[in-house]
Specification:
This protein has 355 residues and is α+β, with helices and mostly antiparallel strands. It has eight helices and 17 strands. The strands form three sheets. Strands 4-3-2-1-5-6 form a six-stranded mixed beta sheet, with helices on one face. A six-stranded antiparallel beta sheet has the order 7-12-8-9-10-11, covered by helices on one side. A five-stranded antiparallel beta sheet has the order 15-14-13-16-17. α1 crosses α8 (331-349). The longest helix has 26 residues, at 269-294. This is YheC/YheD family protein. Pfam families: ATPgrasp_YheCD.
Length: 355
């Protein structure tokens, strides 16, 4: 029987998702376990984790060898656990005897640079600069009324700041719309940039007009996964709508998830045609290009913004997408998503391209 291991930093993270996948694993001849990279014994290379018991549909404590197939669902912060786990994960991904369902993406800045170099996709990437000095922000603000600063290692909308011109001052708000600072002097802007870069590298983009008539931030989330032949397929397309007055439409930040078709029906016909054409172009082009640039992935959470004029923008490409958007799907469609990692694992076990 093939062994597939879910790797997470927190023992409880993704437990529901892991369980749904594990319930279906037996019919594919796969056993499922989950563990933290911090629980690998460096002497024996055995793991203390949990193994799914098909008879009881429960997880049991166990010690086992590192599984030959691994599903990386680790999310890193700036804490000690993350700092310890990263080099362990790098070591696992370099081992020739282990196969990961996906090898992940580099930081957002490298992804932006790569997409900007593509002859087709570059048209959908907002102008993006690396925030290294206050002058980088001032130069963009000379052309724009407001800019958004995104951490290059961020996720779930955390660490985002919006800087707006207000008369002769700059207002700095966090992703929830709360004002964090009012900058009146160059020295204060220097301090802000230094403070941001001390925590993480940042990229700057113009603040795009991506809100509903009710001033709610919104974006489109497209979940793409590979099927049992290694071909990219679209699993779900949804709209995420955040709270009025905030800047992020992330589900973890409290955004609602709504069917894409309902949102699309509200667009005037000419705009609908333009938007759909852009989305299809991106979905058709981006996954295979990302694979060729950064190595094979199993899934992508693609975040798209749609401006008032119908322009579609690539906001983020996530190699470890969340699962809450699947709640809008039927039970049969959800079942396909839970079975996807198992089918792709069998593809890799049969000698499919994994690196």
């Amino acid at each position: 029987m093939i062994s597939l291991g879910f790797v997470t930093l927190d023992e409880q993270q993704d437990r529901g998702y892991c369980t749904e996948v594990a319930k279906r694993a037996g019919r594919y001849g796969i056993s499922v376990c989950r563990f933290s990279p911090l629980n690998i014994d460096p002497q024996t290379e055995h793991v203390h984790g949990f193994v799914f018991q098909e008879e009881t549909n429960e997880w049991a404590d166990a010690v086992f060898p590192i599984p030959p197939f691994l599903y990386d669902r680790c999310f890193y912060g700036h804490d000690d656990r993350s700092k310890k786990a990263k080099p362990i994960m790098r070591w696992l991904k370099q081992r020739p005897d282990l196969v990961f369902l996906g090898y992940g993406l580099p930081n957002k800045w490298e992804v932006y640079e790569s997409l900007s170099a593509h002859p087709l996709l570059s048209a959908y990437v907002p102008p993006t600069v690396r925030l290294e000095r206050a002058d980088d922000m001032l130069e963009l603000l000379r052309r724009e009324q407001a800019v958004i600063a995104k951490p290059v290692h961020g996720s779930a909308g955390r660490g985002i700041y919006v800087i707006q011109k207000k008369g002769k001052t700059l207002s700095v708000q966090d992703g929830s719309g709360k004002e964090r600072a009012v900058i009146t002097r160059r020295r204060e802007l220097d301090q802000l940039v230094t403070s941001l870069n001390r925590r993480d590298g940042y990229a700057l983009q113009p603040l795009l007009s991506l809100s509903t008539p009710a001033n709610e931030p919104f974006d489109l989330r497209v979940l793409l996964q590979k099927d049992e032949t290694g071909r990219w397929i679209e699993q779900v397309r949804a709209v995420r709508i955040g709270h009025a007055g905030t800047w992020v439409a992330n589900v973890r930040a409290g955004a609602d998830i709504r069917p894409f078709a309902d949102w699309l029906d509200c667009l005037p016909s000419p705009k609908r045609i333009v938007v759909l054409d852009s989305i299809e172009t991106i979905i058709r082009t981006l996954p295979t290009y990302i694979d060729s640039e950064f190595g094979p992935l199993f899934e992508i959470g693609l975040d798209l913004g749609v401006a008032d004029n119908g322009a579609v923008w690539i906001l983020d490409v996530n190699s470890k997408p969340g699962r809450k958007v699947v709640n809008i799907l039927s039970a049969e469609q959800q079942n396909g998503i839970y079975e996807a990692p198992l089918r792709y694992c069998l593809f890799l076990a049969g000698g499919g391209n994994s690196r």
